[in-house]
Amino acid sequence: MTPFWIALQFLTVLPIELKIMPTAQQNGRAILFYPLVGLIIGGILFLIVCLFAKLPIFLLAAIITTLWVWLTGGLHLDGLADTADAWVGGFGDKLRTLQIMKDPSCGPIGVLSLVVICLLKFALVYVLIEQHQMLFLILVPALGRLVPSILFLTTPYVREKGLGRSLTDHLPKTASWIITGLVLLLPLYWGWQGLIAVIGFLMSLVYLRHVFIKRIDGITGDTVGAAIEISETVLLFAFIVSYFYL
């Protein structure tokens, strides 16, 4: 169970204490539990909606969006901000882009990316609550946490050192593909609406992978975080659009 606790500690702010330093192999196997951690995050969000269902929808949507950010410690939002800064400030140059990503400070483009993504998620959560579709929110963090597996399995990791390199080298490939396939089937519970949402999710991921390879010949930890945030937003957007048009 150590890989599960590693995943829970890494992806959330829940008070998990590991008794020993994880090995590279355990960190790699922890990726298999990322979708499960996503389900836990989604389950908590759904529970809060149920507990505070009598509150005004605007306030409840704000609470859910804030709690979502807090539960993840803003981990992937940090990657989004760093990636946005690097993409604009890198001027198309690979080395400059990678150097800017290492800078811990957040520039104006990074801040703007955070505002935009959080505003979109707030609006999408608002519509989910208003249309009584909050059950779908349980799956959104789970599918979002498939992104690291898919990218690590299909895309070169460009940095020689770091956690991403360890994860890439020790990721159980067969088990990861099986889990990815099973989790992608879960939205089909909603029929065509769920299928369209998954297609939108995968299309956004394919596009982001293409953009990453074109600019830096692969991925970094920051780009993976950015892909998680963007693909989750696209997943929600596609689900809601299909809800109104199907």
UniProtKB/TrEMBL annotation:
It is a multi-pass membrane protein. Its cofactor is Mg(2+). Keywords: Cell membrane, Cobalamin biosynthesis, Magnesium, Membrane, Transferase, Transmembrane, Transmembrane helix. Its EC number is 2.7.8.26. Coiled coil: none annotated. The chain crosses the membrane at residues 31-52, 57-77, 109-129, 136-157, 177-203, 224-245. Pathway: Cofactor biosynthesis; adenosylcobalamin biosynthesis; adenosylcobalamin from cob(II)yrinate a,c-diamide: step 7/7. InterPro entries: CobS. The keyword Isomerase does not apply. It comes from the Bacteria. It catalyses: alpha-ribazole 5'-phosphate + adenosylcob(III)inamide-GDP = adenosylcob(III)alamin 5'-phosphate + GMP + H(+); alpha-ribazole + adenosylcob(III)inamide-GDP = adenosylcob(III)alamin + GMP + H(+). It is found in: Cell membrane. Belongs to the CobS family. Joins adenosylcobinamide-GDP and alpha-ribazole to generate adenosylcobalamin (Ado-cobalamin). Also synthesizes adenosylcobalamin 5'-phosphate from adenosylcobinamide-GDP and alpha-ribazole 5'-phosphate. This is Adenosylcobinamide-GDP ribazoletransferase.
